[in-house]
Write a structure and sequence with these properties.
By secondary structure, the protein is of the alpha/beta class. It has helices at 17-28, 44-53, 66-72, 78-83, 102-113, 130-141, 154-164, 224-232, 242-257, 264-280; strands spanning 3-9, 32-38, 56-61, 75-76, 88-92, 95-99, 123-126, 147-150, 170-173, 184-189, 208-216, 237-239. The chain folds into 2 domains: 4-101 and 248-263, Leucine Dehydrogenase, chain A, domain 1 (Rossmann fold, 3-Layer(aba) Sandwich), CATH 3.40.50.10860; 103-242, Rossmann fold (3-Layer(aba) Sandwich), CATH 3.40.50.720. Helices cover 40% and strands 22% of the residues. The strands form 2 sheets. A 6-stranded mixed β-sheet has the order 2-1-3-5-6-4, with helices on both faces. Helix 1 (17-28) packs across helix 9. The chain binds 2'-monophosphoadenosine-5'-diphosphate (ATR). The site of 2'-monophosphoadenosine-5'-diphosphate has 20 residues, from helix 6.
């Protein structure tokens, strides 16, 4: 019998998750039905109940619902609690169990696929929303050096730093301070500025040097402005979020089905298509 899975978000029609999970299911010989469900935050609770009533066994959650999903779970993994955000729901009896696979997905992509050694890297995290919260704990666990968090709304950066709870290692700075912070070994863009059609405040060149890696948690067109800026500054690596997307999906798949899929093939397919999209523009 086919089991029901879905990704909830708003908007979500562009999501690659249905395709990635279909490929994983085929590879593992597991019949799964995985759809994309567009729902605004105000309707999320009801939509999730409806999904469960129709036999929903698990779901991914994307923007802007990850913090709402965390609040709806009756229990969560430690990594979800540390993030205060859930991207993976698992039906457990009458309740939802919540996990967050974003951080492990990002770290796996950066270390195993991109070959980066994250240890002791002086790191700048731009943004303090659900995506930033999802990846910050895993970056600290992966051994980065000092972590600086900068967000348009400083109170959210403060809240993230408080949650991470490593005052000597995690620092909050204002956007206006960026030009005084010097060079970083790793700069991650976890904001939705490009996707929302807004323009991110101009970033100073001094943030990136020739050994720096720049990472966008977005992929496709939303990743282009930040990564183009990073390349223009001569960053050593400029990496989009496509690999993280595939790796977090594999981790969710493993939670639901008890088997870890191989990610190289679907990553290769999506990477080739994304290269064609960028070239065609
Ligand atoms: P996500 O779950 O992807 O993190 P989110 O929780 O809505 O989505 O967070 C979006 C992030 O992008 C936030 O850090 C947001 O800054 P605020 O906390 O100040 O809202 C940031 N962001 C969005 N548009 C931006 C813009 N035009 N300039 C700077 N930061 C922006």
């Amino acid at each position: 019998m086919s089991r029901h899975y879905a990704v909830f978000g708003h908007p979500v029609s562009h999501s690659l998750s249905p395709r990635i999970h279909a490929a994983f299911g085929k590879q593992a010989g597991i019949a799964i039905e995985y759809s994309a469900i567009d729902v605004e935050p105000s309707g999320f609770d009801a939509a999730l109940q409806d999904f469960a009533a129709r036999g929903g066994a698990g779901a991914n959650v994307t923007l802007p619902l990850k913090e709402a999903a965390y609040a709806l779970c009756s229990d969560t993994t430690e990594r979800a609690r540390r993030a205060g955000a859930v991207n993976t729901l698992i039906r457990n009896g009458d309740a939802w169990h919540g996990d967050n696979t974003d951080g492990v997905g990002l770290v796996r992509d950066l270390t195993e696929r991109q070959g980066l050694d994250l240890r002791a890297r002086r790191t700048l995290l731009l943004g303090a929303g659900g995506a930033a919260r999802g990846v910050a704990p895993a970056l600290l666990d992966a051994g980065i050096g000092d972590l600086f968090i900068v967000n348009r709304t400083p109170a959210r950066a403060d809240a993230l730093a408080d949650m991470l709870g490593q005052p000597g290692r995690v620092h909050v700075r204002y956007l206006d301070d960026l030009r005084n912070l010097g060079e970083f070994d790793l700069v991650l863009n976890a904001t939705t500025a490009a996707r929302d059609g807004g323009s991110f405040p101009t970033l100073p060149r001094s943030l990136l040097g020739r050994r720096s890696a720049a990472v966008s948690l977005s992929y496709g067109e939303a990743a282009i402005p930040f990564l183009a800026w990073a390349r223009a500054q001569g960053a050593h690596e400029s990496i989009d979020g496509l690999g993280m997307l595939v790796e977090q999906a594999a981790e969710s798949f493993a939670r639901w089905h008890g088997t870890r899929p191989d990610t190289d093939r679907i990553y290769g397919e999506l990477r080739a298509e994304s290269a064609r999209l960028v070239t065609a523009d």
